[in-house]
Structures are given as C-alpha cells and as structure tokens.
Amino acid sequence: xxxxxxxxxxxxxxxxxxxxxxxxxxxxxxxxxxxxxxxxxxxxxxxxxxxxxxxxxxxxxxxxxxxxxxxxxxxxxxxxxxxxxxxxxxxxxxxxxxxxxxxxxxxxxxxxxxxxxxxxxxx
Length: 123
What we know:
By secondary structure, this protein is mainly alpha-helical. The protein folds into two domains: about 1-35, no CATH class; about 50-123, no CATH class. It has four helices and two strands. It has helices spanning about 5-20, 50-80, 85-110, 115-120, and strands at about 20-25, 30. The chain has a two-stranded antiparallel sheet with strand order 1-2. The longest helix is centred in the middle third of the chain and has 33 residues, at about 50-80. About 0% of the residues are buried.
C-alpha cells in the first residue's frame, strides 16, 4: 500500500516549497534534519514555552467556541424537530464532531489536500 503517483508528486512539491527537500532531475536531497538534534530542545531559546502557552490557549478558546455554537445549533434543531429529541441530539453531536475532525485533518494535510477540499477554507 503506497502513495499514488499524483499524490506522491503533490507531497514532494509541498516539501520542496516548504524547504524540506531539494529536487533536480536525478536526485532528491533532504535539507532539514529528519530527527531533532540535541540543540533543538524545547525551551532552549526561551520563546518555545510562550508559544506553547499561546497555542494551548488558542486551542482551548477554539474548542469552547465550537462547544457553545454546537449547543445552540443542537438546541435549535431539537426545537424544530421536537418529536425526535434524542435522534436529533445524536445527529447534531455527530455533525459537530465531524466538523471538528474535518478541520483538524485539513489543517494537518493542507499542502497535500485536493484543491476542492481547500476551497472552503480561508487563511
């Protein structure tokens, strides 16, 4: 089980654009280390811990926002479809979880994702 030719080509182009590899007609050269070196330990520069704090805070706020909007959405759906209270809650919860998973996947695989998947995402 491997990557298809087109997908592998897109992945290589993305890595080249990011500066991870250098390509020519005959060879591919890795330009960044595959594993972190001893000097690249987190917190060595002093800014890594503050970046980690900001990332965690942004994650918590984004998750709280998603939960609040999901609660309002599911509450509205149960008001519209009052006869099927628990099925609507199950459906709404599944839809909201799916949106979060799709957003996380797209953020991880931005450079290798198809253009059609990236059209709805604005950076």
